[in-house]
Amino acid sequence: MSSPAYGIAVLISGNGSNLQAIIDATHNGSIQGQVSAVISNKKEAFGLERARKAGIAQAVLSGDDAIAAYLQDLAPQLIVLAGYMRVLGAAFTHQFAGRLINIHPSLLPAYRGLNTHARALAAGDTTHGCSVHFVTPELDAGPVIAQSTVPIQPHDTSESLQSRVQAAEHRLYPQVVAWLAAGRVELKEDQVWFDQSPLHAPLQVPAPHTV
């Protein structure tokens, strides 16, 4: 009898492009697991339609308690925040510590919070990018697992930079989920471990060549 598939629950608020990248990676075998449910705090989120088309269960839920109860019943091995635009409370993040991850559009710890692309441009940075991290109660401050770096071009706008960072996200996030599903990444005492050794710097995943 085969063991159950590695279950992944994804929380979204909008378009769900990172959700789609993860779904695609489960379908092509890059991720040895399956997305078992997509949860949104907004009923109009297009990511719910992506889930429907892929035959994945969808739920529209508001509030930490309702989501936590749903996840307890679902019992996924991993909970992925993919454009989930609500801050989760400390009780929730503690309950699911070590199996709750997020992607953020900056090279953390730089530019926590919103408007990261405009802030990087305003600072005159030459590089920008995205980070996948374990979620802790402090916003965008959990241990970073991996990053992808994107060069800033001389004529970049917030919109052009955002587009290239998103392309990098669509490679980075499935890669990190694949490592977690394979048991290669884990959180021990607030430190990221990779292949049974502690990481002293985030793993680096190259951005697509077009970036």
Key features of this structure:
alpha/beta; Rossmann fold; eight-stranded mixed β-sheet; 11 strands; globular; Phosphoribosylglycinamide formyltransferase; phosphoribosylglycinamide formyltransferase activity; Formyl_transf_N_sf
Mean pLDDT: 96
Tally of DSSP β-strands: 11
Class by alpha and beta content = alpha/beta
Number of helices: 6
Beta-strand percentage range? 25-35%
CATH architecture: 3-Layer(aba) Sandwich
Description:
By secondary structure, this protein is of the alpha/beta class. The protein is built from six helices and eleven strands. A hairpin with a 2-residue loop joins strand 9 and strand 10. The mean pLDDT is 96. This is Phosphoribosylglycinamide formyltransferase. Keywords: Purine biosynthesis, Transferase. It is an enzyme of class 2 (transferase). Its EC number is 2.1.2.2.
Topology:
Blueprint: E1 7-12, H1 17-27, E2 34-40, H2 46-53, E3 57-60, H3 64-74, E4 78-81, H4 90-95, E5 100-104, H5 116-122, E6 127-134, E7 144-151, H6 158-181, E8 185-188, E9 191-194, E10 197-198, E11 203-204
Parallel strand pairs: 1-2, 1-4, 2-3, 4-5, 7-11
Antiparallel strand pairs: 5-6, 6-7, 8-9, 9-10
